[in-house]
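Sequence and fold:
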Amino acid sequence: MVITGLGFGRMEIDGHPYGRDLILLPPDIHFPWIRHRGHHLCLEDLGTVLERQPQLLVIGTGMFGRMRVDAALIGILNARNIACRPLRTREAAAEFNAAVRQGLCCAGAFHLTC
């Protein structure tokens, strides 16, 4: 599974377009991904990720980085042996693709707009 295209409000996965926020848990795509508090990421928003226990969770915080990820959430994920990389969505997509190419068990949670 590779992110093959990206723009404001859209992402292509293996050439298939998506127009809403999503979670990538190869080989699955969870779409749409709706968070409890909009632009504030909380643990409850990551239930499917926690079930899978990936080595790495890449978080796309939006094209302008407006989705907030608290340090406490990162600490909880790290305590569960899930490395966490919150980045603007464009950088997060590149990080996700690199991790997949390296063969890491990786998940991606992507906010596609602001």
Summary: The longest helix spans residues 89-101. The CA atoms of residues 22 and 33 lie 5 Å apart. The chain has one domain: 3-111.
